[in-house]
Structure to design on (162 residues):
């Protein structure tokens, strides 16, 4: 049995160093993303807004669903709490829960969508004088999107009932 040559040893060391450098960069990227989210949360808290949920997007980004005393905010959208007539919690386009202010009549939600083997969670906000707004809560497994949608729906429920 022959001992590995110097060139083989150097190539193996270089590959190991490259792998460790990639792993380090990945870890630092995750750390930076976490610090950025924490900084954004502090900035929103200084404005009097609370983060209700982090909404995963198909692009891999995360959109924050925010609430303050007057309104809800997400992506580039805003819904005044006083304008919310009701909401629907949707799973693949099917309403699994709904709420409405007394006397309010909700329009039908978006058409049902049966995605093979995927769970897509949304919350539809029915607003006075406007078309319903859909808050896309994602389609990640492990209950992440379900939890985000439930948090959004519960926040809207508190606003409607309170």
């Amino acid at each position: 049995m022959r001992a590995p040559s110097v060139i083989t040893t150097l190539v193996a060391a270089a590959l190991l160093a490259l792998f460790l450098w990639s792993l380090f960069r990945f870890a630092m990227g995750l750390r930076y993303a976490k610090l950025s989210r924490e900084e954004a949360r502090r900035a929103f808290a200084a404005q009097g807004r609370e983060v209700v949920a982090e909404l995963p997007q198909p692009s891999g980004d995360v959109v924050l669903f925010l609430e303050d005393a007057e309104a809800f905010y997400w992506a580039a959208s805003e819904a005044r709490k006083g304008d919310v007539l009701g909401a629907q919690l949707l799973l693949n386009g099917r309403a699994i829960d709904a709420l409405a202010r007394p006397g309010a009549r909700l329009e039908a939600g978006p058409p049902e969508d049966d995605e093979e083997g995927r769970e897509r969670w949304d919350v539809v906000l029915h607003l006075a004088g406007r078309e319903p707004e859909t808050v896309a809560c994602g389609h990640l497994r492990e209950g992440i999107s379900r939890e985000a949608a439930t948090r959004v729906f519960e926040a809207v429920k508190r606003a409607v009932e309170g």
In short: Residues 1-46 form one domain. The chain has two helices and eight strands. The chain has a mean pLDDT of 86.
